[in-house]
Amino acid sequence: MRPSEHGSAGEAGAPSPDLRCDAGQKTVLRVSGLTVGTDNVDLVIDVSFSIERGETLCLVGESGCGKSVTCLAAMGLHSEPVRRKAGSVALFDETLSEMTERQLAPIRGRDVAMIFQDPAASLNPVQRVGRQVAEVLVVHRSLSWRAAHEQAIALLGEVGIPHPADRADAYPHQLSGGMCQRVMIAMALACRPKLIIADEATTALDVTTQAQILRLMRTLQRETGTAMIFVTHDLSVVAEIADRVAVMYSGRIVESASADELFDHPAHPYTRGLMDCRLDAHAPVADRLRAIEGTVPGPAARPAGCAFRTRCSKARAVCAETPQLRWRAGSQAVACHFPESLQ
Q1: 171 and 224 share a domain?
Q2: pLDDT in tens, 304-314
């Protein structure tokens, strides 16, 4: 998560670069000092992280913490009045944040694919789903429509859609929400991208299908070295797939660690609160579920200093000053004046 600079993408209007990686190149995506917002308010503040080939980074936090905004900004998909105010986003050696829309368009889908949370808003309602999956292959891999359609049917089968040849002829409104989400996942996997950004991608799926999709994504990683950013609030999913975890609160990363470090020694009070809210199979049935008091403040109502201090039992006067992200043992970093002990 230490920031670094990368070179420019080239002249505006130039063709999109072919983002190939050599065998020794490990870092797929590097986000450095990213701040996103409007003229009057910051939605994401000074966010930095990197992700390596074949690695899964989970972004965790409640709704409104800035996870989706971070991912959209990384893809250059934010729109006015929201804009990137500072920082850079680099895919391999190319700085995406300096590219034009013309340069970014072929990279999306081919090198970077995003799976959105709401498939109903992402699929074309007047086009058959098989054609929508095939179109990705026609545009980015130059397949014929016949070959692309055959591969689209195979992809629909891979993501667990029964009778894929029949389902390929269906329109989105003829499929369930979970089925439409699987179509979106098939579209994302079609070109075997170098990076997949999954924004609550399995939320609408039942547990069995969710496990199937997660296995499919892990298989893709093993075969191709694809990196994945997985946005979720479900810590059971984090425990299942994450190599590293970044916990976000009110637009900032407040803790970063390997999955093992985070679950063994959560250092930030907010992370500890999220852990305590989990269902515990060993807890007495009569016990009430724990909750973090209060809600995430809106960006315009964010308190000065540590944004979590209004909900934190450890808050002191010094918490009115913004804590910096500091490295601890191993790969763990925390932004807190009073972090939990590692013991």
Answers
A1: no
A2: 999 999 999 89
